[in-house]
Write a structure and sequence with these properties.
The protein is α/β, with parallel strands linked by helices and 284 residues long. Helix content is 41%, strand content 13%. The chain contains eleven helices and ten strands. The strands form two sheets. Strands 3-4-5-6-7-8-9-10 form an eight-stranded parallel β-sheet. Helix 8 (208-217) crosses helix 9.
């Protein structure tokens, strides 16, 4: 079993630096994929309410038979425009959504709970964050964080709270390395977590420069990219439903990217997102 390094979050909690994501995995497939991942050695599992696979994710965890306390489980609040997130009604809505996620996952606590999108045009996340703080203080989640927040949204959050997010999960991969945001996170003690760490497939994984590095180390391009995330201090959550790839993505120990490799990977950056720009994006 590959040894997975950990990142110490700003509240002292250790989080595995390589986890397993289930975005776009149907609920009926999630249980088998998660079970395979846990049996392979993953100890961090990332899902979200909007993925509609929390039930399958929880089932896969239970089927794997690993004690709950050995796992790091993350899900995310879907703070869409279908609810009023202001005032007492917003606070109560957060708590209801949290309870619903626990029920679906079949657990009585989370390790990390994230606000899925900032929706900055509504200014709704500050009130949501207060409810998150309540969940943290009550021990119902061991850490709280955000997803898809930029510097402006994080700064706005800092102005309303003393509880700094433990994690910000954002799009990040060699084509979109987010250097400025990573530096801002480091300045404020926020761990950076990458969604779509493999760039969602062919364009990134077909990069000739990455293929050359992979051949040099006798590894796959995916393993090189995941190794890059670990070496730059980013948490990565690759996704697959193929058992061989699930195991392959975990096998990133035993080799080190050197300065030449890292420079070549940096040259592949395009600055282009695969997903939407959160600053103008609003899920309804």
């Amino acid at each position: 079993m590959s040894t997975i390094p950990s990142i110490t979050l700003n509240n002292g909690l250790a989080m595995p630096q390589l986890g397993f994501g289930v975005w776009q995995v149907p609920d009926e497939e999630a249980s088998a994929a998660v079970r395979t991942a846990v049996e392979a050695g993953y100890r961090s599992i990332d899902t979200a309410t909007i993925y509609e696979n929390e039930v399958g994710t929880g089932l896969g965890i239970r089927q794997a038979g690993v004690p709950r306390e050995e796992l790091f489980l993350t899900t995310k609040l879907w703070n869409s425009g279908k609810r009023d997130w202001s005032g007492q009604a917003g606070r109560d809505a957060v708590l209801r959504e949290f309870d619903a996620s626990l029920d679906k996952l079949g657990t009585d606590y989370l390790d990390l709970y994230l606000i899925h999108w900032p929706r900055p045009m509504h200014g709704s996340f500050a009130n949501i964050w207060q409810a998150f703080e309540e969940l943290l203080a009550g021990g119902r989640t061991r850490a709280i964080g955000v997803s898809n927040f930029g510097q402006a949204e994080l700064t706005q959050l800092f102005e309303t709270t003393s509880v700094v997010p433990a994690v910000n999960q954002v799009e990040l991969h060699p084509h979109f390395p987010q250097q400025e945001l990573r530096a801002f996170h480091a300045q404020h003690g926020i761990a950076t977590e990458a969604w779509s760490p493999l760039g969602q497939g062919k364009e990134l994984l077909g990069e000739p420069a990455l293929a050359k590095i992979a051949a040099k180390h006798g590894r796959t391009v995916a393993q090189v990219v995941l190794r890059w995330h670990l070496q730059i201090g980013v948490i990565a959550i690759p996704k697959s439903v193929t058992p061989s790839r699930i195991r392959e993505n975990l096998d990133v120990a035993g080799f080190e990217l050197d300065a030449e490799d890292l420079a070549a990977i940096a040259e592949t950056a395009t600055g282009r997102r695969l997903g939407p720009d959160p600053t103008g994006f609003d899920w309804n």
